[in-house]
Design the sequence.
């Protein structure tokens, strides 16, 4: 009967080497999957940011095109009657709206708030009266964007 002899030319992996390799591959795979998951979850962020900028710019343009001072004293109640920049102070829209206060389709998950504060510009003694306008847009993901503009009495 022939005895089993160990041959040094046999190549292979031991059980411990296989387990170590599986652990290393598993750790690497978890890292890769975490990056893929993060990328997938945040893939819409640039779209939301771009839409927030467009909404803020639209509101800012609407506001800055209005009169600096109130041409009448009737006290505006609805946005369709806003006729000067100060009327927009404290505006809070749940969902983006057009200048008449109508909801814009597809943008109902954005919220918009406006702040108008008096601010003088220029060197002391030659200051010009002005208004600082902050339009804050919050996207559906909860990220806020603030667009600041200025309106002088010209």
Sequence:
């Amino acid at each position: 009967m022939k005895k089993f002899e160990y041959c040094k030319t046999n190549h292979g992996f031991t059980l411990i080497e296989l387990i170590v390799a599986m652990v290393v591959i598993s750790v690497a795979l978890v890292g890769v999957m975490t990056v893929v998951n993060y990328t997938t979850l945040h893939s819409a962020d640039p779209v939301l940011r771009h839409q927030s900028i467009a909404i803020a710019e639209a509101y800012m343009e609407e506001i800055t095109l209005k009169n600096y001072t109130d041409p009448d004293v009737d006290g505006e109640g609805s946005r369709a009657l806003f006729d000067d920049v100060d009327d927009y102070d404290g505006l809070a829209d749940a969902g983006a709206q057009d200048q008449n206060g109508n909801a814009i389709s597809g943008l109902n998950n954005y919220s918009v708030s406006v702040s108008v504060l008096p601010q003088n510009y220029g060197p002391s003694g030659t200051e010009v009266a002005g208004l600082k306008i902050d339009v804050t847009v919050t996207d559906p993901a909860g990220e806020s964007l603030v667009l600041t503009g200025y309106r002088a009495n010209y």
Notes: The two ends are 112 Å apart (CA to CA).
